[in-house]
Design goal:
The protein is mainly β. The protein has one domain. The strands form two sheets. Strands 4, 5, 6, 7, 8 and 9 form a six-stranded antiparallel beta sheet that branches. It has a three-stranded antiparallel beta sheet with strand order 1-2-3, with no helix packed on it. The mean pLDDT is about 90. The protein is globular, with a radius of gyration of 14 Å. It is built from no helices and nine strands. β4 and β5 form a beta hairpin.
Length: about 120
């Protein structure tokens, strides 16, 4: 599994290449799910390292709260944003949430719940 920039000049779009060679395009604003977040999260941004143009270090997100029908709040701690998923290979030595990238899927075609009819 690897996460790379679709275009190194556009830090709003990355591609996830799964072990099966399935490619999932991930964009800022997309609604995705993964093993620990079956209700979904909204991608709010990608963190990059200017010295490495292969891909992002991580992606940031807000969790969807089904019962409240709203996004979780933006949170920062002494370590930074806890809603920060490490993207491999570039993000390997950095702090953040480790997830099973093989379980990442676009939910509702990537459309966030607050935009659904």
């Amino acid at each position: 599994m690897s996460v790379y920039w679709k275009d190194p000049n556009d830090e709003t779009v990355a591609i996830l290449i799964k072990e099966s060679n399935e490619i999932v395009t991930l964009r800022v604003g997309d609604f995705i799910t993964y093993k620990r977040r079956p209700d979904g999260v909204k991608i709010t941004g990608f963190i990059s390292k200017q010295t490495d143009t292969r891909g992002p270090i991580s992606l940031t997100y807000l969790p969807w709260r089904v019962n409240e029908k709203q996004w979780g709040p933006t949170v920062f701690t002494l370590k930074g944003n806890p809603y920060n998923i490490i993207a491999f290979p570039v993000g390997a030595p950095h702090w953040g949430e480790q997830i099973d990238w093989e379980t990442v899927e676009l939910k509702n075609g990537g459309t966030c719940p607050d935009l659904l009819d």
